[in-house]
Amino acid sequence: MSWDATKDPMVSDELSVREPPKILIPVRVLEGQTVPEPLVEFLTPAEIVVLGYHVLPEQTPTEQGSMQFEDRAQEAVEAIAKGFREAGGGVETRVVFTHDRDQTVDRVANEVGATATLLPNPTGEVEDVLVAVRGSIDVARLVDLVAALLADDDADVTLWGLTGGGGYDAESAVQRADATLEQRGFDPERITVEVSGSETPIYDIVARSVEFDVVVMGEGGPPVLSALFGDDAERVAEGAVAPVLVVRDLPEPAEEATDEHQSTDEVATDASDSDGPVSGDDHSGETDETGETDETDGTEA
């Protein structure tokens, strides 16, 4: 491999993924959605935040939803967190009752500093990982995340560069990604490199996800999460789509929260879990502009 990824001017410390990475996992907590055991094992090198959410009808106050369903939701989220703790991973939990799922997921991802957001579709053993490369930020951040998660694994990785106009050089991008993985110690025999054109990259990635155990892709703007977490019947039919890790774009500089940014449309419960419980509950009842109320219930180890 002639490409020296360490000297690539498009790869900088500012674009690098933190290690260990932090993964936000939103789950439909009252609908029985969970995280498959093979996926728990795959994600163990990362720090996990399980976000159990329930979307309420617009006419239902979030405080009412919290009063009715909080205990049940907390129990379900704790069951998921227990799997990560037993696998040796670090995990935090939150429960949210909201009127706007997408805004809630984005808000919590910003708050916890998530590297990526996971769509936890069913999967078997993680043996083949598709890394969809669609932009320059994907090269540094996607490869960093994959390298961190697969450092002690033997899964195969397919680097798939997608061109869609705009002058993006997908071939050079996947070469950089390939070189970076090899310089991180990956066996070249585990890496496949492909490049193809696409006018609809998000949906082409989703369609091809049936061939792989996990898909890793860059955020590339709000439409990606809306497409992946939305209600596209063809996509979600029969659970045919693999789990998707969406690596987040670098966040905008944080601004101090003020009262004028808060509302009463969202209710959430925060908890951080590790080796053992710490006694005590703190129900803060915070609200913000996403229509969500936050209540904190903390355990940490």
Automatic annotation (TrEMBL):
Disordered, as annotated region: 250-301
One Pfam family it belongs to: Usp
Residue ranges of domain UspA in the record: 129-248
Matches recorded under InterPro entries: Universal_stress_UspA (IPR006015), UspA (IPR006016)
Biased composition (Acidic residues): 287-301
Name recorded for this polypeptide: Universal stress protein
